Amino acid sequence: YQLFKDTLLYTISKIIPGLTGLISVVLFFRLIGAEEYGKYSIIFSFTNLIAAFSFGWLNQSILRYRSTYSSSVKILSPISLGFILGTILVIIFVIITSTFGFPAIFSNKHIIFLALSIGMFNIIKSIFQSEERPNKVILITSYQSILMIICSIIILKLYDNSAESLILGISFGYLLPILPYSKLFSINIITKENIKKINPFFNYGLPLSLWLGISLSLNLLDRFFIEYYYGSSLMGSYAGFSEFVIRIFSIFIFPITLAVHPILMNNWNKNKNINEFFIKLFKASIFQIIICLVMLGLLFIFKNDFFYLIQIMIPEVDISMKKIMIPVFIGGFLWQLALIIHKPLEIEERTLIMVFCIIFSLVTNLIGNIFFLPKFGVSATAYTMIFSASIYILLSILFSNSFRNFLRR
User: Fold this and answer.
1) Cα of 83 vs its chain's centroid, Å
2) In whole angstroms, what is the distance from residue 343 CA to residue 215 CA?
3) Minimal CA–CA distance to 186: which of 55, 332, 78, 311?
């Protein structure tokens, strides 16, 4: 009942962001064109990757350990210290990448601003999610999605219709909704006690930051290789089309992942009941699979109509995107399912194994894009997404001790 109730609330929280996300893809694509949208997509993926490396460890640790603290006040000081560490990491990453001339077309200060905005937003969202307060998540995600469009349009009109202006508008869209919660970050935070508290966060979460960074690099690599072999215009079409299709998951499937994570972690922290843990995990997985099968059936039946609708909204989208609609949908779903399937590795705190598994997915991505993309076109990238997700799911099951023990019963 709790899973269903929280999923329903998180679904509500994703309706406005999901719809505005779909609108933003169409709107931004029309405003700046396929080529500039492609540039924006690469830079946004790159910045998201930096934010994941820098703050992902903190977000995951909040979700994992929040219920071990008696009150939210006690966890705020180590969170604030974690934010300072994350900010330092962002700056270091940008300096390192800029020495290699990437990204050559963008200002470093814009990338840092966006990374910090994303980082702060996700920290606040993780706090509310860990406390099982979906109503707060609904509030800030709805504001973020609406402000993202408003701020972007204002800046595009004030400056120029470029990818860099769009990045600046997106940054304000992330930052403005969380300003009322800035008081959650303490001032007196660099103390011996807080450093002691942050150690388990960092030890547990660092491999997860690597995991998040590598998983996000898969999207970045897809766009990089398509642009390398076929140019910015086709890459922009792929980016816009795939984001349009995958954003549908944010409305119908991702809420299950958001709801089940704190339920599983908080329940495990309290009673360590492995049977109850797996029953809830399997229920959430089956719930996702049923929704996916229904949506996939509708997509098969109305495939031509759906693509025609996309062409009306995004006239510049390349016709070759039609043949990858189904594989992009399946690949996106499998990665959503993977976020639940690897939960046993998280409770076992074997996060290095998760990194090991995602590295295999990364190798699959590289092989698919380097060897098959030039020969088979963007279809190779779409099917590579399916194979990389399938490999990750399989390895997550094989390397989980609790998963194997439960299946033997």
Assistant:
1) 19
2) 16
3) 78
Task: Give CA–CA dist 208/201, Å, rounded.
Answer: 11
**Half-sphere exposure for 167 (CA within 13 Å, toward CB):** 28
Give pTM, 2 decimals: 0.76
CB 10 within 8 A of CB 252: no
For 323-337, the DSSP string reads GGHHHHHHHHHHHHH
Q: What is the pLDDT of residues 13-54, one digit of tens each?
A: 666 777 787 788 888 888 888 788 888 888 888 898 899 889
Residues 6+ apart with CB under 8 A from 220: 42, 45, 46, 49
Q: What is the rounded distance in angstroms from the CA atom of residue 345 to the CA atom of residue 268?
A: 13
* Per-residue tokens: 14: 């994703």
The letter for the amino acid at 193 is: E
CA pair distance 87, 363, nearest whole angstrom: 29
Residue 1 DSSP code: -
d(CA 169, CA 233): 22
Q: Which two tokens stand for residue 259?
A: 């709801």
Task: List, in sequence order, the alpha helices (H) in 131-231.
Answer: 134-158, 163-175, 192-230
Burial of 176 (0-12, 13-18, 19+ CB in 10 A): middle
Distances (CA, A) of 285 to 253, 280, 288, 339, 340: 10, 9, 5, 10, 7
pLDDT tens for 254-298 read: 767 766 766 776 666 677 777 777 887 888 888 888 888 988 898
